[in-house]
Amino acid sequence: MSRSNYVALAALMALGIGAGVPTTQAQVTVSVGPPPVCPYGYYDFAPYACAPYGYYGPDWFANGVFIGVGPWYHGPAAFNGHVNNRFDPHHGYHGPMPARGERPAHDVVNMRDFHGNEVRDGRGHVGR
């Protein structure tokens, strides 16, 4: 048998095997639900746990309401806001975290003691 005959036979076998495999329809469901109710905002990564006071700066709040991050972000498209990543668990923070639904104990509009060290957009990307 010549080389071209082997190639043709292999192609026919592959076609026959592929024709016998049943196809299935993949179902993909993405559900986001409501944003977490957190007194000082929530981290921009799943599971979107509540962030402590001082993680987000005052530019992340509109009239005391957090503008959101991740799938619930509803600020301007070109927004970049200051965060203090020393309060980020990815950077080693193990301190107290507020619970979901907890009321704020600090003023988020006039955060005089905020010290941001990083800029992020509403999707969690490090900005300029």
Textual characterization of the structure:
- The protein is built from one helix and four strands.
- With about 130 residues, it is low in regular secondary structure.
- The chain has one domain (about 25-128).
- The strands form two sheets. It has a two-stranded antiparallel sheet with strand order 1-2. Strands 3-4 form a two-stranded antiparallel ribbon.
- The longest helix has 18 residues, at about 5-20.
- The termini are far apart.
- About 15% of the residues are buried.
- The mean pLDDT is about 85.
Task: Chart the SSEs and their pairings.
Elements: H1 3-20, E1 61-62, E2 65-66, E3 81-83, E4 118-120
Antiparallel strand pairs: 1-2, 3-4
Radius of gyration: 25 Å
* Total DSSP E strands: 4
Number of domains: 1
Helix content: 10-25%
Major beta-sheet overview: 2 strands, antiparallel
Q: Assign the structural class, choosing from mainly alpha, mainly beta, alpha/beta, alpha+beta, or little secondary structure.
A: little secondary structure
User: Strand arrangement, largest sheet?
Assistant: 1-2
> What series of H and E elements makes up the topology?
HEEEE
| Shape call | elongated
Q: Compute the number of helices.
A: 1
Low-confidence stretches: none
Q: Write down the overall mean pLDDT.
A: 84
Classify the beta-strand content into a percent band. 5-15%
Distance between the termini: 66 Å
